[in-house]
Write a structure and sequence with these properties.
- 40% of the residues lie in helices and 22% in strands.
- The protein is of the alpha/beta class and 165 residues long.
- A hairpin with a 5-residue loop joins strand 3 and strand 4.
- Helix 3 crosses helix 4 and helix 4 crosses helix 5.
């Protein structure tokens, strides 16, 4: 049996109350490249860009934390076969706060472009079973857990790609 490689299906959307970022059209091609490099194929997932207020509501509802966060991933793990016989993994959904993206870039002293790539990669890794437990990216420190090491490696791999600017 011949295994055929398929791209991933990625839906990108923005909260109605947020202005659509000019870089939005670059997100899907970037994610396709990251997914290919990470060896993830045949996945279907969404990325939703939102405000701090919106992600705070999600964080409260699903994690019982009453404050905004930068990125949330909701892993699904379901799958289905389309009319062509291709099996698709429904990976889940990623929510990213545009407000927090800007705050994080300032805090970590990185470009908004670098922070956007980090949040996207972080979300993808969570959808594919990675977890970092209580460890989070810290300013001026090296990651110890596997997920954050993989994230760092992917960030280095896509260092020359620019989504913003």
């Amino acid at each position: 049996m011949k295994v055929r490689k398929v791209a991933n299906r990625i839906l990108i959307d923005v909260e109605d109350s947020c202005e659509e970022p000019e870089w939005l059209c670059k997100v899907e091609p970037f994610l396709q490249n990251v997914m290919q490099k990470a060896g993830y194929d045949g996945q279907e997932f969404s990325v939703f860009f939102c405000s701090d207020e919106y992600i705070k509501d999600l964080n409260r509802e699903y994690r019982n934390i009453d404050e905004p966060t930068d990125v949330l991933s909701f892993e699904s793990g379901d799958s289905y076969t389309d009319e062509d016989g291709t099996v698709w993994k429904c990976s889940g959904d990623i929510a990213i706060s545009i407000d927090m993206l800007l705050k994080n870039a300032e805090y970590f002293e990185v470009t908004q472009d670098e922070e956007l790539k980090r949040l996207l990669i972080h979300g993808i890794l969570h959808l594919n079973g990675y977890d970092h437990g209580d460890e989070h990216v810290q300013k001026d420190s090296e990651p110890e857990c596997e997920m954050l090491k993989v994230q760092k490696n992917l960030m280095q791999e896509f260092q020359s790609v620019h989504l913003i600017g």
